[in-house]
């Protein structure tokens, strides 16, 4: 890991704080130390967006500090809970163990305790604990609702920069074979009979109607990929880059519309890291983390800033509060789960025996030949379709299909995606120390409920078709399936990017088309919170594309 000279300066900073007065920034009881070292850029949050942004900044030789509240999850980033059978790997690295993170205790260790929906508080962000499903966005994901400057033709070069380093793969095993594809043969055979078609989702990302594909995973060199593996090592080669983990940013410190640094909280207490003259702060704390930092910085609805203040955060004087619709309009994909019994003989990989080291066949294939089922993620087929409800809106659906408990049981995780019209509201809880939903983002509109009902009815009809030899398990009727929806964990839109300045009447946007917070001179946001629309597939690929595009605009602005 890159060692920064900064840590020793924390102590020095404490001495300086005792000698110099920072009282104007802290009217309350606590005195905070101030760093001597300053940075051209401070990036808040070491998830996919933050790592990409910080690495691209480091390439320009600007001095950049990346602050992550969690720890590193891999050996090279400081983790020491390695696998019993390979002391260079943690369960995070091995694609086949992506379903075992709860079992080994890492999911609870890495998940945030202060967000409205599930989010990861670990270096690498959501990409460290997710199922690695990697869906290249279709053009409509940008062309429908993103503003000028953010259409597919504008962001395509950013997508290509991402795919060059982090392409994902549908064939991760080094021997070129697919393992355990019984589900694919059964389900593809059935989908063919009802008129769907097989597509190559990477070559033809716009084919999203009655189409199915092999899954593409965020895997590279037989390990979980993502910016932690594909960008961070590049940044760490640069002298201008510093990473600090275990550092939670409470708020942006600002003088009026100019950010001057950030207030951080570590095991050593609270202190301030300062920007160099003309420096900038880039928020990448995620769709729930970045709104929280903004509320604490006096930016957002008045009620939320007031809650942060009553929780003891040193928000700016009220005259400097910036009224923006932070947290309004947060969106997610609702999931409908349908389990179907087939006559197949496949079953879930037994990860307990992989973790224990007793599944020697799969472990040897992985360790010695970079091959086998452990190079693959959970899913075996991904499908898409769309429908049009009576509001004339086209809504898309994705199904991610894999095994579950019970031989031959096909688990279909079906999401309603791009085109859905519901949104929620993210606020602070009454204690002012965690985000919660004032309104959940799911199935709030009649159009969404009608469209979801039609889609689920289509699935139920398919799997009840006697010729198909399937039977639906668990919830079997449409209304029960609809009502049992769960969170897709693909949150976007809580700091919407757009041309309609949210400070003005009816304005809905928090950041402008250069990803700069309205009303601030040098504060930017690059993570999932700025997306004005939901993608057709899982979020991580488009989140990375947008971070690449946003940091390019920021560096040239
Ligand atoms: C359990 C789960 C499963 C998922 N499955 C998939 C999937 O299979 N495929 C897919 O495409 N997408 C999936 N996603 C979604 C995807 O991972 C996210 O869309 C993506 O990670 C969002 O990236 P981000 O950079 O916006 O934010 P995040 O990934 O949330 O990263 C934010 C980072 O900021 C840090 N942070 C937050 N607050 C602070 C603070 N105050 N100070 C310092 N650091 C801070 C966090 O620790 C984190 O590292 C899943 C997400 C989760 C949580
Ligand atoms: C392993 O890492 C944890 C958390 O970072 C740390 O507290 C512990 O001391 C480490 N253990 C060893 C043996 O290095
Ligand atoms: C928020 O504050 C409440 C009340 O003080 C406390 O019980 C809770 O643990 C805190 N939550 C977090 C995430 O810090
Ligand atoms: C806390 O201070 C000690 C002593 O200066 C330092 O070694 C350590 O890295 C600091 N921890 C954090 C999280 O900053
Ligand atoms: C359905 O599958 C069962 C095995 O589960 C098999 O015995 C039966 O022949 C199949 N029926 C048809 C119509 O294919
Ligand atoms: C998985 O493997 C473990 C350990 O080898 C074993 O105890 C357990 O019964 C297996 N589980 C299943 C569902 O086969
Ligand atoms: C452990 O995994 C690494 C990375 O995949 C591999 O290079 C190495 O050979 C493995 N070690 C053993 C002992 O199998
Ligand atoms: C939907 O489109 C049809 C045909 O163009 C039109 O008749 C109808 O009024 C539209 N409905 C809505 C709600 O816009
Ligand atoms: C399973 O069902 C399919 C579809 O009906 C049928 O073609 C096949 O023969 C069955 N397989 C077995 C092993 O029964
Ligand atoms: C649908 O299923 C639920 C749960 O299994 C059940 O309670 C409900 O009565 C069913 N509704 C209809 C219309 O069959
Ligand atoms: C804001 O929206 C309301 C209701 O749609 C409308 O009456 C009002 O004129 C709008 N104000 C501005 C400044 O656009």
Automatic annotation (TrEMBL):
Pfam families: GMC_oxred_C (PF05199), GMC_oxred_N (PF00732)
Binding site for FAD: 122, 130-133, 249
GO MF: flavin adenine dinucleotide binding; oxidoreductase activity, acting on CH-OH group of donors
Signal peptide: 1-23
Record domain Glucose-methanol-choline oxidoreductase N-terminal: where: 286-300
InterPro entries (alphabetical): FAD/NAD-bd_sf (IPR036188), GMC_Oxidoreductase_CD (IPR053208), GMC_OxRdtase (IPR012132), GMC_OxRdtase_N (IPR000172), GMC_OxRtase_C (IPR007867)
Cofactor: FAD
Keywords of the record: FAD, Flavoprotein, Signal
Membrane-spanning segments: none
Highest taxon in the source lineage: Eukaryota
Family named by the database record: Belongs to the GMC oxidoreductase family.
Protein name listed in UniProt: Glucose-methanol-choline oxidoreductase N-terminal domain-containing protein
């Amino acid at each position: 890991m890159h060692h920064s000279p900064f840590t020793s300066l924390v102590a020095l900073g404490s001495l300086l704080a005792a000698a110099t007065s920072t009282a104007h920034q802290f009217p309350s009881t606590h005195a905070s130390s101030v760093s001597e070292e300053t940075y051209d850029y401070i990036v808040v949050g070491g998830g996919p967006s933050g790592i990409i942004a910080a690495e691209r900044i480091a390439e320009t030789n600007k001095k950049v500090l990346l602050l992550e509240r969690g720890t590193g999850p891999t050996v090279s980033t400081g983790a020491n809970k390695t696998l019993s059978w390979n002391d260079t790997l943690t369960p995070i690295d091995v694609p086949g163990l992506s379903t075992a993170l709860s079992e080994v205790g890492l999911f609870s260790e890495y998940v945030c305790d202060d967000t409205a929906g599930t989010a990861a508080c670990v270096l690498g962000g959501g990409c460290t604990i997710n199922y690695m499903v990697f869906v290249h966005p279709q053009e409509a994901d940008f062309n429908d609702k993103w503003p000028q400057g953010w259409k597919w033709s504008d962001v395509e070069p950013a997508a290509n920069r991402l795919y060059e380093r982090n392409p994902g793969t549908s064939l991760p095993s080094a021997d070129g074979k697919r393992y355990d594809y019984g589900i694919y043969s059964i389900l593809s055979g059935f989908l063919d009979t009802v008129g769907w078609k097989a597509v190559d989702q990477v070559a033809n990302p716009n084919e999203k109607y009655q189409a199915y594909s092999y899954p593409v995973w965020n895997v590279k060199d037989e390990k979980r990929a993502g910016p932690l593996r594909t960008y961070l090592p590049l940044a760490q080669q640069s002298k201008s880059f510093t990473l600090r983990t275990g550092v939670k940013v409470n708020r942006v410190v600002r003088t009026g519309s100019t950010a001057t640094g950030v207030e951080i909280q570590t095991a050593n207490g609270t202190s301030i890291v300062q920007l160099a003259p003309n420096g900038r702060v880039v928020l990448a704390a995620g769709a729930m983390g970045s709104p929280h930092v903004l509320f604490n910085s006096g930016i957002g609805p008045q009620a939320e800033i007031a809650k942060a203040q009553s929780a003891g955060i040193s928000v700016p004087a009220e005259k400097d509060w910036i009224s923006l619709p932070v947290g309004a309009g947060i969106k997610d994909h609702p999931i409908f789960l349908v389990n179907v019994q087939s006559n197949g003989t496949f079953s879930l990989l037994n990860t307990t025996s992989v973790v224990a080291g007793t599944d020697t066949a799969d472990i040897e294939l992985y360790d010695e030949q970079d091959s086998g089922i452990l190079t693959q993620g959970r899913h075996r087929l991904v499908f898409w379709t769309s429908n049009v409800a009576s509001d004339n809106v086209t809504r898309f659906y994705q199904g991610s299909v894999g095994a579950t408990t019970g031989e031959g049981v096909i688990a279909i995780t079906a999401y309603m995606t791009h085109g859905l019209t519901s949104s929620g509201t993210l606020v602070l809880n009454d204690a002012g120390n965690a985000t919660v939903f004032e309104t959940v983002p799911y199935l709030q509109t009649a159009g969404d409920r009608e469209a979801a009902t039609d889609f689920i009815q289509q699935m139920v009809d398919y799997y009840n078709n006697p010729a198909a030899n399937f039977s639906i398990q668990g919830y079997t009727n449409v209304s029960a399936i609809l009502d049992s929806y769960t969170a897709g964990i693909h949150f976007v839109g809580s700091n919407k990017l757009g041309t309609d300045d949210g400070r003005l009447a009816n304005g809905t946007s928090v950041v402008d088309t250069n990803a700069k917070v309205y009303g601030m001179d040098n504060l930017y946001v690059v993570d999932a919170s700025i997306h004005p629309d939901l993608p057709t597939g899982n979020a991580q690929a488009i989140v990375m594309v947008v971070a690449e595009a946003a940091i390019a605009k920021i560096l040239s602005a």
